[in-house]
Design a protein that fits this description.
alpha/beta, Metallo-beta-lactamase, Chain A, 7-stranded mixed β-sheet, 28% strand, binds zinc ion
């Protein structure tokens, strides 16, 4: 199971960067988790766009879905060039009817996931956890049957996260704020919140993502180390986690 960070910025992409998008691979199956702004360009540093097998979305905020439209155009253009039509499944929740409807296009099909049920996608099984965020949003626990990646998507801190993330090999947290800032009004977490979950859940490794555009982001790691003893990494473009 291999995860590659394509985008990690919160809100909007920094110059030449991308917002939330993670590529998860197992055998020949490639899954995209969220499709933030700039992520289609970044994905092509590693894969042909037609190598994608499925997309799963946490919620419909622009910094998580901005590149869905151009991904649909890419698959449409490629269907002409290749003279073969393939359909890319894009999984999303149905609590935003307009957002969900936008997932279906000529070469993509929006498929609703039931957040209360396990979703099977290729070699992966995904379970969902409703986050606290201004719009309906779901964190994910993704496993290939051997290892587990938990992605908080966008959320404020809540105690139940430690159960959901329990024993994960990798925890990717929303870290949009520094430890001395309260992110809860904005629907996000700070470095302390993420590290607290990592510690309580006993995860193998912590990755801080959805990063702020100000301050020294390496400070987030120093702050998180006060609450979690394991390995902590800052999400970065092209960063690979493999197990
Ligand atoms: Zn959001």
């Amino acid at each position: 199971m291999k995860l590659t960070v394509l985008g990690f910025w919160g809100g909007y992409p920094a110059a030449n960067g991308a917002t939330s998008a993670y590529m998860v691979e197992k055998d020949d199956f490639t899954l995209l988790i969220d499709a933030g702004s700039g992520s289609l360009a970044k994905l092509q540093n590693y894969k042909n766009v037609m190598d994608l097998d499925a997309v799963v979305l946490s919620h419909y905020h622009h910094d998580h879905v901005a590149d869905i439209g151009v991904l649909q155009y890419a698959w449409l253009v490629q269907s002409y060039l290749r003279e073969a039509k393939e359909i890319l499944p894009i999984y999303g929740h149905m609590e935003d009817q307009q957002g969900f409807a936008s997932l279906t296009h000529e070469c993509t099909e929006g498929i609703a996931y039931d957040p209360n049920k396990e979703l099977k996608v290729g070699p992966f099984s995904i379970t969902f956890f409703k986050t606290d965020h201004p719009v309906p949003c779901y964190g994910m626990r993704i496993t290939d049957g051997e290892n587990v990646i938990v992605y908080t998507a966008d959320t404020t801190y809540k105690e139940a996260w430690s159960d959901f993330a329990n024993g994960a090999d990798l925890l990717i947290t929303d870290c949009n704020f520094y430890a001395d800032q309260d992110g809860s009004n904005a629907g996000h977490m700070n470095s302390k919140d993420g590290a607290t979950i990592a510690n309580e859940a006993g995860v193998g490794e912590l990755m801080l993502s959805h990063l702020p555009h100000y301050g020294d982001v390496t400070e987030l790691v120093r702050e998180a180390k006060q609450y979690y003893n394991g390995t902590i990494q800052l999400a970065d473009e092209g960063l690979v986690w493999k197990k």
